[in-house]
Amino acid sequence: MAVTLVTDRAPRRKVGDRHHRGASRWIVLALVTLAALAMLVPFVFMLLNAFKSPGDYSSSGPLSWPSEFYTKGLTTYWTEVDFPLKFWNSLLISGSVAVLAVAVSLFNAYALGIGKVKGRLWIVGLFLLANMMPQEALIYPLYYAAKQIGLYNTQLSVIIIFTVVQSAFGTYLLASVLGTFPRSVLEAAALDGAGKWTVLRRVVFPNVRPTLAVLLIFFFIWTWNEFLIPLVMLIDNSTQTIPVALASLQGDRLMDAPTTNAGALISLVPAVLFFIIFQRTLSRGITAGAEK
């Protein structure tokens, strides 16, 4: 009888715990949903004002519904800033930085996480500190250095700068991951006669490919949204990126709010499409990292 009572009571406790966990999950889900809706509010305002005429914006304000479907702001931004050229500049810089920064991060992390480098922890900590340094502290040295070597007002200067900046974070993250790489796998590869390059290409790279894909997506979006360094380093219209072109619509005392919102809407579309296209890759990379 005692055994029967114990077996009867155990499921009751589990059911209670399950209901308790279920209620907590619903509360967390509700809070996350409210936070997501709050984050969408600025985008809703941007969408409303992008199709609103300047007169309608001045008379009714930014919170009203547009009285007409006004598209001149979109065409004005497209033609005034030469959006196709700015799109190509942003795509060239962001894509190059993403690929180069991932490659540099992998090589650095391979040396620090798997290679026998003295003072590895100090070097990884240095990369972490470099990643935490604000861009305002770097802009003046970078500006004068670019002037001296003749790279000022070129996309190459921004590509080099952001490759170094992004690879600092990538090196710190990958070095932590590769530091826990199974030594037995590396020793087995060494016994089979694999050199360091073969180990990197055939053993390490396939295992960290999901993490590299996540870094590639993050580096691309982060570089796409950068503003301060491109603003200082790229002064010619033919070399500027989309965020810099969007800021050029605003003057000292005058701002065309509908055109600015229309430009922000157009500028947002490529980054959103890139994220949607690679969303599954990002999810697989994060899931694979969690499983490891």
From TrEMBL:
Residue spans crossing the bilayer: 26-48, 87-109, 121-143, 155-175, 211-235, 262-278
A Pfam family assignment: BPD_transp_1
Domain ABC transmembrane type-1, chain residue ranges per copy: 87-278
GO cellular component: plasma membrane
Membrane topology: Multi-pass membrane protein
Subcellular locations according to the entry: Cell membrane
Keywords linked to the UniProt accession: Cell membrane, Membrane, Transmembrane, Transmembrane helix, Transport
Main location: membrane
GO biological process, alphabetically ordered: transmembrane transport
PROSITE patterns hit by this protein: ABC_TM1
SUPFAM superfamilies: MetI-like (SSF161098)
InterPro entries tied to this protein: MetI-like, MetI-like_sf
Protein family (similarity comment): Belongs to the binding-protein-dependent transport system permease family.
Protein name (Swiss-Prot/TrEMBL): ABC transporter permease
Organism: Catellatospora coxensis
